[in-house]
Automatic annotation (TrEMBL):
Cleavable signal peptide: none
Organism: Jiella pacifica
SUPFAM superfamilies hit by this protein: lambda integrase-like, N-terminal domain
Pfam families xrefs: DUF6538, Phage_int_SAM_1
BP term (GO), one: DNA integration
The keyword Electron transport is annotated on this UniProt entry: no
Coiled coil: none
InterPro entries: CB, DUF6538, Integrase_recombinase_N, Integrase_SAM-like_N
Record's keyword terms, sorted: DNA integration, DNA-binding
Core-binding (CB) domain: residues covered: 148-228
Protein name: Site-specific integrase
GO molecular function: DNA binding
Length: 245
């Protein structure tokens, strides 16, 4: 059966979606001979997957056009690997700054004079942004800094609840409502503070029917407590002091 246009480039792998787009045969030499670009979308939510799919479609359109015009200097899809390599370099630097500087070709006698990987990594960030686009640059920075999106652990959280499917569905919808708001704002789990929580409270929850809003608020708070217990969020919950008028 033919795949509908709304599902184009989307594939299921277990309970998560992935982006898969075939690389035109004439362009495969620009992508290390690969036949397709495949990227995990890290979500089981169809709406979120489609939004991320659309970002990758725009990115791959641009890359294919650059490859046709001979302007593509680096293959796509390596940003997570590059970020992981830099995390290893940062860890090595923190363990022995002088040794790391020597490996990088800078010989120093004092720790005050060492070369930091952060001095070099800015060039990598700029290069990725220029050659692969802002979406790829964002993925690199998220991976480098271990940023956790609000929705990233929702399915794991829900899988641990002994509740009826309809209740699970409601909790998922409530948490993803906030996740979508946070994504639009550019916020991650660790950047959601009391001010951000209060903004969502005022902009979204207080515009709803009181009973509906209280249910959503309770479900979001419960998810946050779960994140705290698993060290995804190390500070106090920003939700606990909020009250309905």
């Amino acid at each position: 059966m033919a795949r509908s246009s709304s599902e184009r480039f989307l594939k299921r792998r277990g309970d998560k979606y992935q982006f898969r787009r075939e690389i035109p045969v004439a362009l495969r030499d620009h992508f290390d001979g690969k036949t397709a670009i495949i990227q995990p979308l890290q979500t089981s939510d169809t709406k979120v997957a489609k939004r991320r799919r659309d970002e990758f479609v725009r990115e791959t359109d641009r890359l294919f056009e650059e490859a046709r015009n001979g302007r593509l200097s680096k293959p796509m899809g390596r940003v997570e690997e590059i970020a992981d390599r830099w995390k290893e370099e940062i860890a090595a630097y923190q363990n022995d700054p002088i040794a790391w500087s020597a490996k990088a070709g800078v010989v120093v006698d004092r720790e005050e004079d060492v070369l930091s990987p952060h001095d070099v990594i800015e060039y990598e960030i700029e290069s990725i942004g220029t050659e692969q686009g802002e979406v790829a640059k964002g993925r690199f920075l998220d991976r480098l800094h271990n940023r956790t999106t609000v929705e990233e652990h929702v399915e794991t959280y829900l899988s641990e609840l002994d509740l009826k499917p309809k209740t699970i569905q409601g909790r998922r919808a409530d948490i993803l409502l906030f996740a979508a708001w946070a994504t639009k704002r550019g916020s991650t789990v660790r950047t959601i503070d009391r001010r951000a929580a209060a903004d969502f409270f005022a902009e979204v929850l207080l515009q709803m029917n009181r009973k509906t809003a209280e249910t959503k608020f309770s479900n979001i708070k419960a998810y946050w407590r779960w994140l705290i217990e698993r060290d995804f969020y190390l500070e106090d919950s920003p939700w606990e002091r909020l009250r309905f008028p």
